[in-house]
Design a protein that fits this description.
The protein is an all-alpha fold and 262 residues long. Helix content is 75%, strand content 0%. It has one domain. The chain contains 10 helices and no strands. α3 runs antiparallel to α5. The chain is globular and about 60 Å long.
């Protein structure tokens, strides 16, 4: 038991050091680097708010169009950024993996923690801006359910990211392939519209996209009075668990090969 806690303490310090390194590498040594994490989602939101305003569109869930887009953009970005950051984790930390105390799991864990904290912070900050401009009335329907959905979205992103990291290790060109896959998902997961208000035929076409269920669950927990008829929680949970299991299994199978090639 003593050896276990000693090993855990070492791993905890390694992950914390990796988080600090990732923060400096990604955002630089100035505050302007951190501002980019805030600017990107706000730029996306403002562009589409301007487009929808010019078209005369309003939010079918009530409130502002900006809030509608934000509640779709946040869960999608949480998944997408985790899947991408974990895919590139090994290639970005090849030198560090030559050290005996640094394992592939550690760099994955560091990137996961940093990305989840960043996304939640950005979401909270943008919500505050909407509230300050009277575009949100400071109401959340089910806060605990909302937190649970964030955990589900994180798990889905981590699972896909783990699988991606193995595929990128075996097939380097897969990095570009996954980028191509994400582009249609950006417009087909319900960020800019509410799948629950679509016809049954359209809902059937979107059913097997777990991101559509993730966004619908997030909005159902966020908006007071919205209960999505499209949402299948069990399907999303099953997909998340399967993807996580496959990701962890693949990582375990190739972790020694990854270290050998550093």
């Amino acid at each position: 038991m003593k050896q276990f806690w000693q090993a855990f303490s070492v791993q905890k310090r390694v992950i914390f050091a990796l988080i600090l390194r990732e923060t400096r590498t990604r955002y630089g040594k100035t505050r302007l680097g951190h501002l980019w994490a805030l600017f990107e989602p706000m730029a996306h939101m403002l562009i589409f708010v301007a487009i929808f305003s010019a078209m005369g569109r309003s939010s079918p869930l009530g409130g502002s169009v900006g809030l509608l887009i934000l509640t779709g953009l946040f869960p999608f970005s949480l998944f997408s950024n985790l899947a991408t950051q974990l895919m590139n984790a090994v290639s970005a930390n090849r030198v560090l993996l030559s050290y005996p105390h640094v394992m592939p799991f550690d760099v994955m864990a560091a990137r996961t923690i940093l990305e989840v904290l960043t996304q939640v912070t950005v979401f909270t900050f943008v919500l505050f801006i909407l509230y300050a401009n009277q575009l949100w009335d400071l109401q959340i329907d089910q806060l605990l359910d909302l937190i649970f959905v964030i955990l589900i979205g994180s798990g889905l992103g981590v699972g896909v990211g783990l699988i991606n990291s193995v595929l990128a290790f075996k097939f380097p060109s897969y990095v570009q392939t996954f980028g191509l896959i994400q582009r249609p998902l950006y417009f087909m997961s319900g960020i800019f519209f509410v799948v629950g208000y679509m016809s049954t035929d359209i809902q059937a076409a979107f059913y097997y996209n777990p991101l559509a269920h993730l966004i619908e669950w997030f909005r159902s927990a966020f908006y007071v009075g919205y209960d999505s008829t499209f949402l299948d929680k069990q399907y999303l949970l099953n997909v998340t668990l399967v993807v996580l299991f496959l990701g962890l299994l693949l990582q375990r199978l190739v972790r020694h090969k990854i270290r050998q090639e550093q």
